[in-house]
């Protein structure tokens, strides 16, 4: 009851000032939320890249746990590469051709000091292609690589589908010249009314410069100032009350 009397004794004017200040602070919070939302990057839909698959002794394709430059398949194994737009290992498209070692390497005789590795290269479909490019007319290439006993999957691939293209971090970017540009960039949802239009997300360098990929320091600093001013307005209104 004492509290209720105190509130009533302040009168409508004092309560109005406090309400207006609180409203201003709330407006500042909403403005900051809008700024941060506008500065946030588009939701990544996935990555467009060459995924790497393995099959040992006639088993089905399994997503590789290491890169082709370090994986060392045994004689009778198969390695597969698929270019696709994928959101992660759970939904990455497998090569469309089976890891059929007998079919791919059946006419290649064993040779001392070497091993035979079946190689499957799946270039994906038009929906997977980067803007301005198209997959080769023959969507899947297979071949039997007869390489040294200690050769890696990358060496086996090079025997079947040159030229290969790598980036500075040794990531496999292109097989048999496809794609001609790019290397595993994130792909973000963009505008399209049917949800299919996609464009590359801002690069890491652009994000670091405050040009994309997230709110810049200036935006965050300005937002912090808005919050401080809004909080001060509420505090002063309460003091006056």
Quickly describe the structure:
The chain is an alpha+beta fold.
Plain-language structure description:
This protein has 241 residues and is α+β, with helices and mostly antiparallel strands. The chain is built from five helices and nine strands. Strands 1, 2, 3, 4, 5, 8 and 9 form a seven-stranded mixed beta sheet that branches. Strands 6-7 form a two-stranded antiparallel ribbon. Strand 6 and strand 7 form a beta hairpin. The longest helix is centred in the N-terminal third of the chain and has 38 residues. The protein starts with a helix and ends with a helix. The relative contact order is 0.17.
Topology, element by element:
Blueprint: H1 2-39, E1 44-55, E2 62-63, E3 78-86, H2 101-105, E4 114-122, E5 140-148, H3 153-160, E6 164-166, E7 172-175, E8 186-189, E9 198-200, H4 204-208, H5 217-240
Parallel strand pairs: 3-4
Antiparallel strand pairs: 1-2, 1-3, 1-8, 4-5, 6-7, 8-9
Helix pairs in contact: 1-5
Give descriptors for this structure.
241 residues, alpha+beta, disordered N terminus, disordered C terminus
Secondary-structure element order, N to C: HEEEHEEHEEEEHH
Compute the average pLDDT. 72
Number of helices: 5
Please outline the major beta sheet. Answer: 7 strands, mixed
What's the count of strands?
9
Cα separation of the termini: 19 Å
Tell me the β content: 15-25%
Tell me, what's the shape?
A: globular
| Unreliably modeled segments | 1-17, 28-42, 191-239
Protein structure class = alpha+beta
Rg, alpha carbons:
29 Å
How much helical structure, as a percent, in the residues? 25-40%
